[in-house]
Amino acid sequence: MYETPYHTEDISQYSFLVTGGAGFIGSNIVEYLLKYGAGKVRVLDSFATGSHANIDEFKSNPAFELIEGDIRDLETCRKALEGIDYVSHQAALGSVPRSINDPLTSNDVNVSGFLNMLVAARDAGVKRMVYAASSSTYGDHPGLPKVEDKIGKPLSPYAITKYVNELYGDVFSKTYDFHTIGLRYFNVFGPKQNPKGPYAAVIPLFIESALKGEAPFINGDGETSRDFTFVENAVQANVKAMLLAANITQHEVVNIAFGERTTLNQLWNRINEIAGTGIMAQYREERKGDVKHSLADVNKAFLLIKYEPLFSVQEGLKYAFSWYKNDVRAIPKK
Q1: Closest Cα partner for 182 from 238, 124, 246?
Q2: Strand, coil or helix: 95
Q3: How many domains is the chain built from?
Q4: Which residues pair with 226 in a beta bridge?
Q5: Residue 282 domain-assigned?
Q6: Interatomic CA distance for residues 24 and 22, integer angstroms
């Protein structure tokens, strides 16, 4: 992965902070930055959902630094931002079901923690802060493809928290002249995404089922569709948003996706093909708070940060399947 650089300037002169850098997307961003010689890559992570295994390979790199701490503590955020040029803020509690089961903690981390990072980054005078927004912000708006300025009502506490992030980003831009960029991720998947726990995402769960030779569960009739996005596309977006958007004059939000809709039934069929299996799925009730269909328009991301997703769902699934199959800590094999 990351065979092609997504930046043009020498990044050895810059220091980066990746919050949630021991998590799925965050650790992939760290991998890219270290591969291309960043001067410093500092990770801030509480390890509530992140894993030391995701960053163990980086700990011997002299450019890597780890701060174990929580974004809910403002002083920890200030410490993490000392001497930092660019921030990729990935720390959050994801998952719609998690937020339904525990809205207080989701709000505390995703809203209060985000506000702490905004305040600390503003005060530290960083060159750019990019943050993980979410396609859940589109809520019940029926239009497809999703366009940034047309949203509906949120359908879950998680969606509310991510929308509040955008509102704060806009207010900080207008009030303090501190301009951030929110990346509305659409169902990112790939290596280092955890298949374990009650809130695991669908692709690692499906791949786990294929590797174990077991039938996966599909919520609803399987015709729910998503714009699944391989993680390297998301990494590209973070790098370009940090380094190529120097002249923005307001808060911006852009869709980060591939621009293709895949149903859960199609997804399972593709994984069956890659795995060489022919397992039939089991169906159960739809989840509360889920959007039925999702598809992104990525034109704004191209215009603003030159985002061009290079990896299709099929290509990404092959990468992901190979990683889960060969990584001994990913999925126990029978």
Answers
A1: 238
A2: coil
A3: 1
A4: 262
A5: no
A6: 7
Q: Which domain holds residue 115?
A: 14-189+229-259+291-310
Q: Is residue 285 part of a domain?
A: no
> Would you state the structure tokens that stand for residue 302, as one six-digit string?
């191209």
Main-chain dihedrals φ then ψ at residue 284, nearest 5 degrees: -145, 180
| CA quadruple 103, 105, 106, 109: dihedral sign | positive
Exposure pattern of 78-106 as b/e (b: 16+ CB <10 Å)? bebbeebbbbbbbbbbbbbebbbeeeeeb
Asked if residue 270 is part of any domain, the answer here is: no
Q: What is the DSSP letter of 293?
A: B
Find the CATH number of the domain harbouring 133.
Answer: 3.40.50.720
What percent of the chain has pLDDT above 90?
91
Condensed to tens digits (0 to 9), the pLDDT of residues 21-72 reads 999 999 999 999 999 999 999 999 999 999 999 999 999 999 999 999 999 9
For the segment 283-299, the average pLDDT, to the nearest whole number, is 89
Is the predicted pLDDT of residue 333 greater than 70, yes or no?
no
Among residues 86, 158, 168, 185, the one annotated as catalytic is 158
Length reported for the chain = 334
**Residue 14 known to be catalytic:** no
CA distance 84 to 240: 17
pLDDT 10s digits, 200-226: 899 999 999 999 999 999 999 999 999
Residue type, 9: E
Contact assessment for residue 212 and residue 334, using Cβ atoms and an 8 Å cutoff? yes
Q: Which of 247, 235, 334, 256 is nearest to 302 (CA)?
A: 256
The secondary structure of 7-49 as a DSSP string is: --S-GGG-EEEEETTTSHHHHHHHHHHHHTT-SEEEEEE--SS
d(CA 297, CA 283): 30
Q: Does 166 fall in a domain? A: yes
